[in-house]
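Section: Multi-chain targets

For targets with more than one molecule, the full set of components is provided together so that the structure can be written out for the assembly as a whole rather than chain by chain. Components appear in the order listed by the source. The example entry contains four components.
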Amino acid sequence: MSRATAALEGDSTATRDGNASARVADALREQIIHGEYPPGARLRQEEIAERFGASRVPVREALKSLEAEGLVTLVANAGAWVSRLTLAECEEIYQTRERLEPLLLRYSAPGLGPADYDTLDSLAERMAATEDVAEFLALDREFHMTSYSAASTLMLGDLVNRLWNTTQPYRRAYTLLIDVHSQRIVHDEHHLLVTALREGDLESAERTVESHIRRTRRLLSGHPEIFSDTTTDRR
Amino acid sequence: MSRATAALEGDSTATRDGNASARVADALREQIIHGEYPPGARLRQEEIAERFGASRVPVREALKSLEAEGLVTLVANAGAWVSRLTLAECEEIYQTRERLEPLLLRYSAPGLGPADYDTLDSLAERMAATEDVAEFLALDREFHMTSYSAASTLMLGDLVNRLWNTTQPYRRAYTLLIDVHSQRIVHDEHHLLVTALREGDLESAERTVESHIRRTRRLLSGHPEIFSDTTTDRR
DNA sequence: TCTGTTGAGATTGCATCCAATCTCGCCTAC
DNA sequence: GTAGGCGAGATTGGATGCAATCTCAACAGA
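Its structure, encoded as tokens over all components, is:
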């Protein structure tokens, strides 16, 4: 199946830049986040290696990285699976986010300016207007990441990113279920956040993000059926 | 230097248990935490491989894991160094801990019992009694980890552990400097924490840990000289 | 019909080998 | 005397090959 690698082989120098493992990790991460590998899906080294036109060595290193990020679960001498979460585990991640994202916002807020506030408003409006789930998810993520974009942190920013990544498949399933009323509340909270940032009221902004995440967590708790997935294998 | 691996070669089956990479990662992590590799020290793949009686492949996978944990910094086509922190980065980690450890304690507290409280008291007393820095550090860590030991979390427990690991070298340098007065306050805070846990006052326990970490962070801020290390190489 | 076992195929783990890149001291040219 | 370039040694990155382990379906026995 070396035909599958044709798109990559076009750039013959790309395979020789000394970081194939990073490239594989980035590409795999994107594919998992975008749902091309659902939770519970098995990841075979050889298949992945073939697809990226690399050998299994950099693939294994990429899987190691993704395991540390929580996206992949490795079992010695058995294989790799896309991590699957229970409702309780997802709630743990949301509770962690409730504590961390206000802190990250505290790091970011002083560096945000009027142009950023306008971008945030625009993103919030587009979220309210769209009816496409994929676009809604992408805009929501872009909105929050923009609010954190001015934070130059060692690990906190990456950490929050990882927490979003591991819960992304469930956020997608959940977004399909929320009603117009909840959607309106999300929009209001986003608007409140931008307003607090514009006014320089950091305390209020922090509390708004925290409440925003907590509300989502509680709504998620009401949909345990999202986590009882029996279509794919174990783990 | 193959003589150095003699102790490991004694068990010839150990190299064939299908997780050499995990063994190398665990051992390297311990050595970094215990200060055998100081911040900024270069980690050469071949030297490490030789020392553990393995090839460079599992060593590279181990380094990937440690990089994701924040203990090691990798640069493509250049090498691996033990991560070095600036004062600002260390403060970021402490601020993160201030938010996360109260939450972890909330997960753990319901599972702790009288036997655990006694263990905690004993550890606190031994900390007050010792004058050895290494023992003080070990007891401090064991005290806090015991208070979190009943939490069965997906990632929060591991995450807190990683934050302790990356700051361990600086905690050691700092412990050498604190005076008797500060040491007494640490002891009082530990005692307060155990008391709150015994009384089932979770709110108070959470606030006590938070204050405890914040106080340490502020004291650390007063010793920027710990972070201006010019003895070893860059990065 | 159900349960325990066994063996071939599939898959992972690691060692060895080769290519690419970086480091750094020496040499040449101006 | 100084700046720029060159190249040998050291080090990392990746591909291939082999051994060990796991998977799973077919089969034998109760």
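Chain B has ten helices and three strands.
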